[in-house]
């Protein structure tokens, strides 16, 4: 959990304690608050000490129990402020994958410089419909989320229109592993690799690949995107992290540049893609 996130959660806990202790009429104890709402006694302590993230419902009950229902809007605004930086897949995928795709499409429509790192699969911005379909299906199974595969695929394809916008630049680094990972049927991966070769020729795309044989200055790790060198989105198994503080963004820029130092591009990158394609044909 990020330091900024934890600090914000602790600050919210301090505010909750202030409201409880300033309840009109008399001081509201933690035990009384827990009893009113049928909570475990330890829940009040966890919330006040920043050990648990409250739900909007928790905040409403807290404000009402403290006799200050008008404080709810302030509390929920604080919650949304720090939760916007850690977006759990459980919440984001409550209505399926399309909503997530649309969020990215809208949130970064005005960005012009994109830097990406991916170690295990082809970038969404370069995926074929069939490859994207396989990815969405597998993640829906993992996250037990609603199946809206075709809508999500259409949204992802809509995002790819940015590849043909001359005002945008995509600086992308793949680990060679992504060229071989069978997260889809072999025939789908073969078509995806053909698509990747074509993407290398786009004037808006600079595709670099780190060979498995390359000497690495740092271990390849979690995938991320950097937008206009001002915001980073990191994908973990449980959530997306939206990071915009300058020091953290600078860290990801250094990571991206360090990874780039081990990568090949141009003809050498095309050769790696072609070799992976030949491997598929020999199976």
The tally of structural domains comes to: 2
Strand order within the widest sheet?
A: 1-7-6-5-2-3-4-8
**CATH class label of the largest domain:** Alpha Beta
Radius of gyration: 23 Å
Enumerate the spans where pLDDT stays under 50 for 5 or more consecutive residues: none
Distance linking N and C termini: 43 Å
Share of residues in helices:
40-55%
Helix count, DSSP H or I runs of 4 or more residues: 13
Give the oligomeric state: single chain
Structure explained in plain terms:
The relative contact order is 0.11. The protein starts with a helix and ends with a helix. It folds into 2 domains: 82 residues, 434 Repressor (Amino-terminal Domain) (Orthogonal Bundle); 194 residues, Endonuclease Chain A (Endonuclease, Chain A, 2-Layer Sandwich). Helix content is 52%, strand content 13%. The chain is α+β, with helices and mostly antiparallel strands and 283 residues long. Strands 1-7-6-5-2-3-4-8 form an 8-stranded mixed β-sheet, with helices on both faces. It has 13 helices and 8 strands. Helix 7 runs parallel beside helix 9.
